[in-house]
Amino acid sequence: MGDIRRVKEVTTNFHKEHRRRVKERFLQAGLSTFAPHEILELLLFFAVPQKDTNVLAHKLIDRFGSVRGVLSASYDELCTVDGVGDHVATLLRLCMPLAAYVRREEEKQKPKSYEAFEDVGEFFLSQFAGIGEEAVLLLMLDNSFGMIDCQRVGTGTINSVGVTPRRMIEMALAAQASMVVLAHNHPTGIAIPSQEDISATRALREAFSAVGVPLIEHILVANHTYRGLLGQMRSFKEEKKEENNAVGATFYSATGFLK
Questions:
Q1: Beta pairing partners, 222
Q2: Half-sphere exposure for 154 (CA within 13 Å, toward CB)
Q3: What's the mean pLDDT when you consider all of the chain?
Q4: N or C: which end of the chain has fewer CB within 10 A?
Q5: Mean per-residue pLDDT for 165-178?
């Protein structure tokens, strides 16, 4: 019994010392020198006490291919890996949404004008980061293209229950928005709109135009890219001028999605 106890003590001390060194390495130099499995090994310290997390980190990388793959996996997918329980799966699922939450806070604190299509596209890339299900967001802008607010309209496709033109218009009017930009994501697809997306966008554009709050773009986000269904504009200012000159004017996309 004494020998077994000594072996356990030696093993425990070894893991403690190893964890201390890994934490110090991170605090001194960040993650730039860490291999993918080492990043997960460090993260797993906080869900797996007093055990070697290296083997589990390798299993996760082998199963999902990358750190991003691991952190993007669903709770159920993570639990299929031997050694992953509730604490580990929950911690791993927390990381991407937490990072996205911080980015959203940062974006809201920036006094930024969203005149250019690229600025709005990059904004929505940050908003959808870490969201694993289909969701619909509405960006509400003032006359100077400053952000009033960005809210999630609902979860699901743009034709889902609860994601209705009336709900979106009520949100825009309550915020006293001068114009709006709609966005939705294809979490497991590519940034090519479906026929459903196109039909819904056409109907939404007409609905917003009827209340004098132009829908100046509908952005589709997928696979770290974005695409506009209403056209790749040079700037939203030019589009706003056209909208003011002819309410309900038809806009054409360079890719021909809406005609």
A1: 225
A2: 14
A3: 82
A4: N
A5: 93
